[in-house]
Amino acid sequence: MKKHSQATLAVIDFSSTDKKIQIQYSDNGIGMPFGKTILKNGLQNVENRIKSIRGTLIFDIQTNRGVKLSFGYPV
User: Fold this and answer.
1) Distance CA 22, CA 19 (A)
2) Model pTM?
3) For the segment 53-70, what is each residue's pLDDT rounded down to a tens digit?
4) Residues 6-24: pLDDT tens digits?
5) How would you write the chain as a 3-class SS string?
6) Looking at the DSSP assignment, which residues form a beta bridge with residue 73?
């Protein structure tokens, strides 16, 4: 997060229910270009791995306000 987003603060939150693990990430970095989530190399690998365990991946992008990312998978 420090290298790519220039963030100084990042938060990772883990939660679980009876049938699902949910992980949320947010930072205060530079964000991503609005409407253009670019899944290259590392992010593409993350997406593929989450899909392989029947999980979901959601990006919440706010220009110049950091990135919020949420993913969950069944247990």
Assistant:
1) 10
2) 0.76
3) 999 998 887 666 788 889
4) 889 999 999 998 899 999 9
5) CHHHHCCCCEEEEEEECCCEEEEEEEECCCCCCCCCCCCCHHHHHHHHHHHHCCCEEEEEECCCCCEEEEEEEEC
6) 21
* Close Cβ partners of 3 (under 8 Å, ≥ 6 residues apart): none
pLDDT one-digit tens code per residue, 27-63:
998 887 665 555 566 778 888 999 999 999 988 876 6
Distance CA 55, CA 47 (A): 9
For residue 64 the two structure tokens come to 């110049």
47: left (phi over 0), alpha (psi -120 to 50) or beta: alpha
User: Could you tell me the two tokens for 74?
Assistant: 């069944």
